[in-house]
Amino acid sequence: MKVLLIGDGARENSLAFSIAKSGRYQLYAFSSYVNPGIKENVDKTNGKYFVGDILSKDEVKRVISQVSPDFGVIGPEDPLFNGAADAFREEGIPVVGPSSKASTIEKSKVWMRNLMWKYNIPGRLRYRAFNNLADAAKFVEEYGGSIAIKPSEQVGGKGVKVVADIQAYLSQEKRRAASRSVDEIGRLVKDEVKIIIEEKVDGPEYTLHVLTDGRSFLPLPLAQDYKHAYQDGIGPETGGMGSISGPGYTLPFIDEDEYKATFEIVKQTAEAIKKETGDEYVGFISGQMMLTELWGPTVIEFYSRLGDPEASAIVPRITSDFGEILELAATGKLNKAKLEVDPRPSIVRAIAPLGYPLNRDLAKGKEISLDLPKMKEIGCQAFFGAISLYGGKLITTGSRALELVAIDDTYEGAVKKLDLCTSLVSSNTKLIYRTDIGRTIEEQVEKAEIVRYSYKDRIKRGVLGASMDWSPNGGLW
Fold first, then answer.
1. CATH number belonging to the domain at 2-97, selected among 3.40.50.300, 3.40.50.20, 3.90.1170.30, 3.30.300.30
2. Are 60 and 6 in contact (CB under 8 A)?
3. What is the mean pLDDT of the chain?
4. pTM, 2 dp
5. Cβ–Cβ contacts within 10 Å for residue 256, how many?
6. What is the CA radius of gyration of the chain?
């Protein structure tokens, strides 16, 4: 069978790896540049690699007509927003990926929040949306509670600001500084609605990815993403500098009941999307969650695809035929899928060239080399991200270049493997990466225990999800 994979990053490399490993499929790929990891798996299955504009629906259709695939898999969000999945379905080809209408769950935070409130989905936050930046800035300065200020649409993990009123004597100055950032955030957004302001919550974050064919739902193991660029969670937000997953289906700080409650939230959301748009949701829908005292499992945002780098933490742990599972999802037979998972935990460490994420021009055009055979001996898997194969060399394209993955009996063991494998990567520029990923588990366990005590007490008192009015004018609404 022929499979056409759309995308060019480390997530797509992990998907290509699992499809090729199946032995059942001939892999074709359509990327904006030649990713060496994807190409290796395409060549392994005697497929073909296409390069072009993956954001163009017409270009996607052109490649579909040349390949005539049995089904497709779409990795990134932007092709989904631009109708890549619609292109497959219009050609009568099954595909793993929601329609452009259904993928609005990720594209628009305002649409997502509206949907959760309309269908009474647990884990929802109160919010205000603004298309006038001056009104948003005024709200930030005048409101007396803790808030999160976000761009209203998906802008690659950029632009989130948080104002927490902990020290009253600094409050007004913090608000004035935050109100000035509203204009900066608003400039990232193309839609009419520019800014969404949400009530701030706190707790450990995690992600649940669910694969669905519109009728059956298959939850994957949890993962946690590390967004900030530098050690110990400081610096600008990125697409993700690393991830952890396991042991088993949960994480050390999330219990089975919380996993089940999170799955129910994601499932209800997929069902609500169908009611709202009329489109069956087929593909991945992923809840970016936080365990909070307000709700327990609480929605921060949704993805309409597999997360990156979360995919690199999850996919290598899947021991059953993940290529076949993707086929079953695309063709409406997911109820037949059997998911088997390595119980051991995994850690992903992303490596990026100097300049990422704030100066991507500086991060472009740098050469990277790595000793893949030695990494394999140590026990690491390398997935290629923003690296183009050019003239036989590995050249950076400006974002996260590599994702190194290690699976071990313990997080400590995985960290040791990653430390050894990272030393086998070299470049003609400075490389940035975080060595703290997977090393703060106990802190998160302690934080989760405090939050768990609080939200379970709310359940006993019958006030789960209830919060005080947090606007000086009579509430957020």
1. 3.40.50.20
2. yes
3. 91
4. 0.91
5. 10
6. 22
